[in-house]
Structure formats: structure tokens, C-alpha cells
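Q: Could you fold this chain for me?
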Amino acid sequence: MTTAPTAENTIKVTDAGPALKRIEISIPSARVDEQLDSAMANLASQASLPGFRRGHAPKGLLEKRFGSALAQEARQHLVSQAYQQALEAHKIRPISQPDLASGTTEPDLVRGKEFALALEVEVMPEFTLPQWEGLALRRPILEILDKHVEEETHRLSYRIGKPAKIDGPFMALDRMVGKAVVRAKGLDKVIFETETALAVVPAEDDEGKGPFLGLLVDGLEAVIKGKMVGDTVIIELTGPEGHEIAEIRGQPLSVTFTIASAERIAPAAVEEIAAAIGLESTALLAENLKGVLERRRDEEQRSALREQVFELLAEKASFDLPERLSEGQIARDIERQKLEMLYRGMDPQTVEARLAETRRSSAEVSRRRLKMFFILAKLAETLGVEASEGEVNGRIAAIARSRNMRPDALRAELEKNGRLGEVALQIREHKSADRVIAKATLTDVPAEEWNKEAQAKASKATATK
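A: Sure. Below is the predicted structure, expressed as C-alpha cells.
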């Protein structure tokens, strides 16, 4: 525990758990009054109320009308200032935004009274970076064949195909939208509700399972295949331990899904695919798609090497992790994986299916990914790796292409959701891993062998705990 007085505040920092700090802030009453007076003076000089000239409204009237907003503004300013002082005075390295300490509530800011607040923030753990030079890595090798081009053409035929409204009965790959209400099984409490839930009847080779509301549902085909618009179905499942929302982790859930509309995709002809890609003839389509697949293969290969770097360093490093992952930690991990897959050129529907599988991973797998995050941050810091604005813009443009979006629209979406920093973080992780790969020993292995091993690992990760 450390305690440090600032010019006006008293701040105490203690360990609240692995990679978690508790920051207790005490702001004296004189500072509270000063900030409230400053906020009132600023408002008084700018306010324009009916019957009064700008800057001449009575203080009492302003206090009555805007008092709560002034207190909120003053509180935010004081807490933000004290929090920054705490970071600097105690050399805290946060990896997330602070939250109210567990078991506490945020008090009101009252004139003439001291303001005390307790926060908790996730921080970088202290540990020694493992030896990273000379790692032994395996590189999957794949030759792009005609069958791969044909598979990509088939996939594009549905992605580019024209949707048509249908009433049912639903068959493989039909898409439906409707109202979904998620409850804990046997209880009336609604955990989540939406009017725009999307369901897709699984393809024949999906073994009857498919994503729904971001979760992978076994037996989804049996529930919705053959149904009609207007039908209501019940989908039962167990909330995965790796989900962002702590309230549903491990909980038996019941989802009431009422189908409002549906559509069936008419696959696009080869000529339509060529035109959509901007090719003048179908003769160029196979050549173009082969080039696309080769570039995607190269990026997947690089991703496989990076993943090995992450895992090998995680095995060698030793430090404590939080006993139970927070919603924020898991949400950031899901977002990083989403950006990674979109950057590698996966279509959004495939990405959502993969994320649904990720949420089924065991809690231990989620903890291992968090450990990798800490190690990569330490590696980037050690190597002095940064992400330039140009690199961030280039990465956003690449991801936008995967989502058929304009780069500026995607950037605005990321900023709105507070995820723009994840792009820079992804770039730093990639550049750091590539430095390690450059000094590693590589052994080539057939992609088929690599994929079998990856499938076995994935099955183990999603096994029942």
C-alpha cells in the first residue's frame, strides 16, 4: 500500500487483486467549493434565460435550474483530475478505464463537505519477459488449387446473391429476423431483449449448429428449419463461461424468438460475381480469386506464426492473473479477435460464427488469452514498438474492405464504441510478434496436418468444464 498527498487531495493506492489496483481519493471541502463556484461562474457568464440579459440571470435561479448538472460537471472534473494525479504519483499503468470499487457507490458532491471516492482499475502486472529469440515455430504450407477457387466462388455466390422475401417453410441458409427475449431458464427476469435478432438455418455441413445472438447454439437447425414467418420458437442453451456479460456465464438460458420476416438468397451467377468484383469477364475471375486466396493464405500463415509466438511466451512467463475475468477484459479480448479475423479477410458472417465458438471456450482459455495480452504489451514496450497514425488508417481501410464499409464510417463506429485503440494495439502486437518471428527457427508443415491439430485443440478448448 502507498499513500501520497497531492497539492489538494489525498490519494491511497492498494492492491485489490492480481493486476488490479484500488485508488481511494479524498478531496477536501475547500476544493469542492472552489470547483462548484468555478462551474457556477462559468455558467453565469454564459447563461441566457428568458427575461434576463446574457450573463445577468440571478444565481439562485441558475442554481435551481442547473444545480444538479453543475454538480455533475464539477464532480467529473475533480475525479478526473485526482485520478490523473494518482496515476502519475504512484506510477500506475492502467489497461482500462477505472470503475467504482466493488461494494461502493458514487457519493453526491455537496458544498462544504469532503468528497471521497474509491475506484478500481486494471493494470499491467509486473513480470520478467521470457527469452524470445530463437523460438522454434511451425509454418503451415498450402498450395491454392482449383477446388479452393471453386469453394470461394460458391461462397461469393451467396454473399453477392440477391435476397428475396419468403414466408417459409425455412431451409438451409435461409435468414430470418425477429424479436428475441433472453431469460434465465425458469425465471421471468429478462436478461436481454432485441427486436432485430438474426438467425440463419445452418448449412448441411454445420452439423445442425449455428450462431444466434452471438452464441453458438447446438441443434439450432432442428429448432428453426421448417418454421414460418410469425412462428415463435424456444431456444434453450447454457451461457458460456467465456461470455462478456457476467450475468449469463454458466446460466441455463431460455430464448423466446418470434420470427417477423425472412429471406432466401438466390445465388449469383458467375457473370454477376465477376461484375460485382469489377472484372470485365468471367475468364479473369478464377485468376483474380486465386490471387485473393493466396494473399489470404499468406496472412493466415503469418497469423499462425504469431499465435505460436503468443502461446510459447505465455508458457514461459509466470505471473498472477485475476481470479475471475471482468466483463471488460473479455469484451476487449472478443473485440481483438474480431478485428484480427476481419483484417485477415474473413466475411462478417464467418467472423460472427467464429466469435460464437470463441465464447464457448473454457474460462481457462480466456485467462490464457488475457495472459498473452499482458505479455505482448510488455514485448512491445521492450522492443519500443509503436503504431503510427498512417498504420492505423491503413489497418482500418483493410478491415473496412472486409465489411464492405467506407473507412471513415468504420473509424467513426470504432470511435463511438471506444474501440479505436484496439486497432493500434493490434498493430503493435503484430509488429512485436513479427520481430520475434524474424529471429525464430521455422519448420514447414502441410496445412492439412496443421488444420487437424488446430481442430483438436479447438475441440479441447470448448469441452465441457
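A (continued): The domain at 2-122 is CATH 3.30.70.1050 (Alpha-Beta Plaits).
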